[in-house]
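Researcher: I'd like a structural prediction for the single chain below. Treat it as a standalone chain; there are no partners to consider.
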Amino acid sequence: MIEFKNITKIYKNAVETSVLQNISFSIEREEFVAIIGPSGSGKSTLMHILGCLDTPTSGQYFFEGREISKLSDDELAEIRKNKIGFVFQTFNLLPRATVLRNVTLPLIYSGVPKQKREEIAKSVLKSSAFPEEFWYYSSNQLSGGMMQRVAIARALVNNPSLILADEPTGNLDSKTGDVVLNTLIDLNKMGHTLIIVTHELYIARYARRIIALRDGQIIEDVPREKAESLRLIKE
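Model: Treating it as a single chain, here is the predicted structure.
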């Protein structure tokens, strides 16, 4: 599904900064991968490239067989809209819009008729076990955990093949974070490829594979049970 070949990213400002250095890996459909590393390791840049939000300085990125660097801006927008569901730490919901309105937004941009998009949004909210009595609440009336579950539902309305979650529990307490993680795990079991980008090692124990970054390089890419980077986690 995903293949990185010698991906390098260099930012050229007053000082040239190499953020990613010759990154290579592949990810199969329905995998659950955690990309971990400390601040400054290149995780966010890697996620932006994975999500077609940024392009590498050199190297090749293939998504479902298509080389991303050869696509137009419109083609990249289509991939982001129809193939990738984004879940962010800060939720990125419209604060005064209802839960249902927030979830239907990607469908509005896709030109889906109103009745159909509400049917899809309600179906996704039900599959996410989001309580129906809160569907018409404004998102700013919800708890952090409920807002993140709305964000997950919004990420699913176009039935993406890939879910990219960037620090999805970063603004949540541990109990609520576990609920959100279990929701993502269930989605992976339903067939969605799941990539979680995080600096929290305890989150990575849920994944089946660990890719660990340090200083823009991969230092480990192994099944979870073999990950030396997780050795401090108590099961």
